[in-house]
Amino acid sequence: MIKVNKAFILDIYKPIVNDTHKGIQGHALLIGGSYSKMGSVCLSSKAALKSGCGLVTAFVPKCGYEIVQIAFPEAMVLIDENEKVLSNIEYTIEPDAIGIGMGIGQDVITEKAFYNFLLQNKTNLVIDADGLNILSKNNNWLSLLPQKTIITPHKKELERLIGTWQSEEEKLEKVIQFSLDHDLVVVVKGAPTLVIYHSEIYQNTTGNQALATAGSGDVLSGIITSLLAQSYNPINAAILGVYLHGLTADIAAPEMSYQAFVASDIISYLGKVYLSLEN
Ligand SMILES: NC(=O)C1=CN([C@@H]2O[C@H](COP(=O)(O)OP(=O)(O)OC[C@H]3O[C@@H](n4cnc5c(N)ncnc54)[C@H](OP(=O)(O)O)[C@@H]3O)[C@@H](O)[C@H]2O)[C@@H](O)CC1
Ligand SMILES: Nc1ncnc2c1ncn2[C@@H]1O[C@H](COP(=O)(O)OP(=O)(O)O)[C@@H](O)[C@H]1O
Ligand SMILES: [Mg+2]
Question: Matching InterPro entries, A to Z (predicted)?
Fold first, then answer.
């Protein structure tokens, strides 16, 4: 087990070069949301842009169009033909990385759209939340995922994917086997969060109970998608994303308490987090 501390992170961290531009800084596509869960994809999309990629597009059901535009004017928005849930994920843009699943629900129409998306997609992928729940119900679709797809399950989502475990040791064995079987980078969210790729285990060292708040995971999947779009390899994108996400809470807690910290604050504190890496 490798502990991910600041020295480890500085080794993989790539500062932004001064002659870059938004076109080469990475384009992240976040596919998510449904009626009553549109906040999830707003949080993911905003977290992606605030993590340094150059462009962000959100793909949402029709009812999300104005919500995303108003919540987050920097984003471009593509809409599904269905009003409330995703039903047909089609677009002509060429993103560098895609994050999918936050807030999408598990309507049968959305399951079908997710399947058709997986059939045609070749882009590096992060799968979160209901994307994982849908995969749990259709585990033969795992073979459709690109190599080193990143999945970000919390405890319940992980159980749905790999079944239950009796001990921490058994959990790790099962996750390692799952990662080997399907060539996945598994972000085992918790306190602490682990990133597991095949038999490599990376234990994060940042984060605290302030992160136990709605949308915290949606923000994490947005950050990781952004890093993937910025051409970090999938293992490093997951490790760095988890570290940055946790560090926002470590910097913020003494300034604003555990209680008052919400998912939007993770996004707000990303600036201080990046500055702390430069010093
Ligand atoms: N603003 C928005 O639009 C938001 C939208 N969201 C979207 O909602 C959708 C549903 O996602 P979800 O995670 O709330 O539902 P679900 O998978 O049933 O898990 C809930 C149960 O799992 C457990 N549990 C969870 N974490 C655990 C842990 N660390 N450690 C241990 N147990 C843990 C816990 O179960 P319990 O322990 O109570 O048995 C809990 O009751 C999804 O698409 C998401 O993106 C949300 O992101 C919120 C903001
Ligand atoms: N007590 C805690 N200590 C550290 N990190 C935590 C704690 N509670 C939650 N987190 C982190 O917060 C995030 C929660 O993700 P998730 O459950 O998917 O939230 P949501 O679906 O509401 O966005 C994970 O990254 C998890 O590791
Ligand atoms: Mg979640």
Answer: Carbohydrate_kinase_pred_CS (IPR017953), CARKD (IPR000631), Ribokinase-like (IPR029056)
